[in-house]
Amino acid sequence: MPELPEVETVMRGLSAVLTGQTIARAETRRAGLRWPFPEMLAERLSGRRVEGFRRRGKYMLMRLSGGESALIHLGMSGRMVARPPGEGPVPRIAPQGAFSDARGGGDGLAHEHLMLETGHGWRVGFQDPRRFGCVDLMPTEGEDRHKLLAGMGPEPLEEGFTPATLSRSLAGKNTPIKAALLDQGVVAGLGNIYVAEALFRAGISPRRLAGTVPGARAARLVPAIKSVLTEAIEAGGSSLRDYVRSDGEIGRFQERFEVYDRLGQPCPRCPGPPACPGVQRIVQAGRSSFFCPRTQR
DNA sequence: AACCTCACCTGGGCGC
DNA sequence: TGCGCCCAGGTGAGGT
C-alpha cells in the first residue's frame, strides 16, 4: 500500500495508538526483512516511551525516549495491525483507517515480523509478506543524515517544493519524467500510482523527457502533485487487492483513480472513442505507466 | 555522473 | 481443482 499518502495515514494511526505510551515489550519473529534488524532490536525497544512520529518520504520515524528513533519502511506489502488489550477477536481499526485487520479475518500472523506491546496491553504488529520493508534504529539527533534519508529530495507537500525547485532538479535529465518522479532524490514520497495520477492532472506524458519539463510544465506539475497527494491523504490513502475492504475502514482514494490501473477505460477528460482510445498502458523501467494519449503530451 | 537492469519475496488472479 | 505464468504500491546494488 505504501506511497506517501498511505504512509502518512498509517503513521497517523500509529501515532494515535502509540504516542505517549510505553513499549512494555517487543518481539521480533525473524532476523530481519530487507536487511537484518539492528542487534537486540526487541530489547532496545522495550521500556521506551514513544514521544512522537514524523514522516520523511515513504519512511516513518518513531521518536523514542532515550534519544533514539526507529526508522520504518513498509516496502511493497507492509502494514501495521493494532490489536486491543485482551486478545479481541477482530483487530479494532484505528482512526483514519490506518490499520487493516489481517486479511479477511485470517490470522495473518505468519507474516508478522515485529510486534510492540504497550503498557496498556495494545499490540501493534508490523506485517510484511514480501519482506521488502525495513526497520532501523538510530540517534534522533541528526535523523536526516541516516544513509537511507540523506539523499532524499524535498517533501512535496512543504513550501520548499516549488516549480522552481522541481525545474532545477529536472533540468538536463535525459530520463523519462515518469522515472525522474519515481526517483526519491528528485521529490520524496511519490510511487507508481501517484506519479501516474499527477502526470495525468498536469497533462504531461510519462514518456516526455524530464529535461523538457522545467518551465510551464513544471508549473502545472507541482500543483498536480500537491493536489493528488493532499486529496489521497484526505481519503485515507489508496487500498488495492488484498487491502480492499468495502466497509470504508481503510483508504478510498482508489475509487478516484483517473488513469492508474484503468487500462482501456475512458479517460475522464475525453469524449471517448474514436476521439480518444481510452487509458493506455506502457512499461517503463519495468513498471506499468497508465496515461491518456490524447491529453497527456 | 547518469542511467538501466536486476534482485529481493510472497500471494492473488488468470488462462488452460 | 490444479498448475504455471504474470503481475503487484519499492529501492539499493551493481553493471554499462
TrEMBL record:
Enzyme Commission identifier(s): 3.2.2.23, 4.2.99.18
SUPFAM superfamilies recorded: Glucocorticoid receptor-like (DNA-binding domain), N-terminal domain of MutM-like DNA repair proteins, S13-like H2TH domain
Binding site for DNA: 111, 130, 173
Domain FPG-type: 258-297
Tagged with keyword Magnesium: no
Pfam families to which the protein is assigned, alphabetical: Fapy_DNA_glyco, H2TH
Name of the protein in its database record: Formamidopyrimidine-DNA glycosylase
Organism name: Muricoccus pecuniae
Gene assigned in the entry: mutM
